[in-house]
Design brief:
single chain; Rossmann fold; 43% helix
């Protein structure tokens, strides 16, 4: 059951939420207006999706995010304004996305929620010999409801691709033992069944980008990169659109 918790104290926005959710989604939703009500709701029910403002009655700025994370809920932040200091302070928090309340744009929130629901049908493969980095990438993809498999090098990745034809997308690191990301890309493109599989390469070597592109990667990111840049690349190369 798709359970959604929304924390919003503006009555006009609450009514708009109800109208759009009923029209464009099949979520089972609950809307509360304060930190206290949110805490009570989270204690009583397990929610899979969440939306909140940064500021909610009964708590200091941002504290509600920690509350939702404590109940394994990563929210969409729908708020009036966001500054860099706040984003840096909550860089390690589990947050799906930031959406501004410009023109009361609840429709953008609805689109993101529907996108997250569709993501549950997609399986991604993360290839990295660093357990720490692989887990970082995996957890960020899981926040967006993707199914995620991992492999410690290119050789193991090819085995995963053979055994899991449902894989829709590959995220590969560059430098790895056994078989690196560049060779993995070559092998994937040589196989008929994976010739068109989207591949995102992650590299610390800016000069390697041209080599990856010549071998057929869909796109690349140079380390270090932000979570927003990473998500943008994944969605762009999966051809995912925010449809109602």
């Amino acid at each position: 059951m798709r359970r959604l918790l929304i924390i919003e104290s503006n009555e006009a926005l609450v009514e708009e939420y109800k109208l759009l959710l009923d029209e464009h989604t099949n979520f089972h939703y609950k809307i509360v207006s304060s930190y206290e009500e949110a805490e009570k709701a989270l204690k009583q029910t397990r929610y899979e999706f969440g939306v909140t403002d940064i500021n909610v009655p009964g708590a200091k700025e941002g504290v509600v995010i920690a509350l939702m994370n404590r109940y394994n809920l990563a929210p969409i932040i729908f708020t009036d304004s966001i500054d860099e200091d706040f984003q840096e302070a909550y860089e390690s928090a589990q947050i799906v996305a930031y959406i501004l309340k410009e023109s009361n744009d609840i429709l953008s929130v609805i689109k993101k929620l529907n996108q997250l629901e569709r993501n549950k049908k997609s399986t991604l493969l993360v290839v990295d010999d660093s357990i720490l980095h692989a887990n970082f990438i995996k957890q960020n993809l899981i926040l967006h409801k993707f199914k995620v498999l991992t492999a410690a090098n290119g050789k193991l990745a090819l085995e995963k691709l053979k055994n899991h034809p449902e894989i829709d997308f590959v995220v590969t690191n560059h430098r790895m033992k056994e078989m690196d990301g560049l060779e993995l890309t070559q092998k994937i493109r040589q196989l008929k069944e994976t010739q068109k599989l989207p591949i995102l390469a992650l590299t610390s070597d800016a000069d390697a980008a041209s080599n990856f592109l010549s071998e057929g990667v869909s796109d690349y990111l140079t380390k270090p990169f932000s979570r927003d840049d990473f998500y943008a690349k994944v969605y762009e190369n999966m051809g995912t659109r925010e449809l109602l």
